[in-house]
Amino acid sequence: MDAIDTESQTLLPRSQWSRRGFVMTSLATGFALSVHPVSAEAIHTDASGLDAGEVKVPVKDGTIPAYRAMPDKGGPFPTVLVVQEVFGVHEHIKDLCRRLAKLGYFAIAPELYARQGDPSKYTDIPTLISEIVNKVPTEQVMSDLDATEAYAKSTGKADTAKLAVTGFCWGGFATWMYAAHNPDLKAAVPWYGVDRKLSDIIPKNPVDIAGEVKCPVLAFYGGQDQSIPQETIEKRQAACKAAGKTCEFKVYPDAPHGFNADYRPSYRPEDAKDAWARMLAWFKDHGVG
Known about the structure:
With 289 residues, this protein is an alpha/beta fold.
């Protein structure tokens, strides 16, 4: 798959990705502008006992910024790739990494829009999607996640033989795709993984690859999520079952989209707590923990 020239909308060979450069060379601070005002319920996990902060991940055409958190003593640790929401690697995603690190994981969230733009600066979601998100090739995302795994392994602190991936919203979509891409994975947990508008650079949706996943998948959904109809969930279930894959689907009947996003009105504490515990159990049951 080719890369895309975000100015002219023409496709570029992957060898020319580097000629476009990187818009983001470091992570945004705080929360993305499009999610303000931030809810008073927003959780902040401190970094005591952790080695946490921004790192640079070497990729095929340069480096991308990422947030990495792990215990400050011991290791190597079981590894979790954390895939950003549509808003990029902002404060909420960093906090999720710290939460995992407090539990003994090496958690790392790469900024997967680094070439296309800075999502934290957008004040409305439709413009963010049209100007950045829809210009991010799926193949580029898979390559960058591969590079993130390689970086984690190179530190000597990550046990990538115990590798999992989890992601939220757009990251839920990417988690599904990565589960079908990387045979190193032991577990995958997509949260409300949306379908995407297909294009030359986004050729497939989760239902298209559900029968090809290379690890057990636990998928969370909100029953009130208007962006993911029940029919979509059922089609994914059917594809997994037909291929004999280990996939479980948990729908929280009263939850909307983004029910784990504690900094937004969509947050549902009880459902979020239950899903988080189920995710951790899924990791441990499949050798990541």
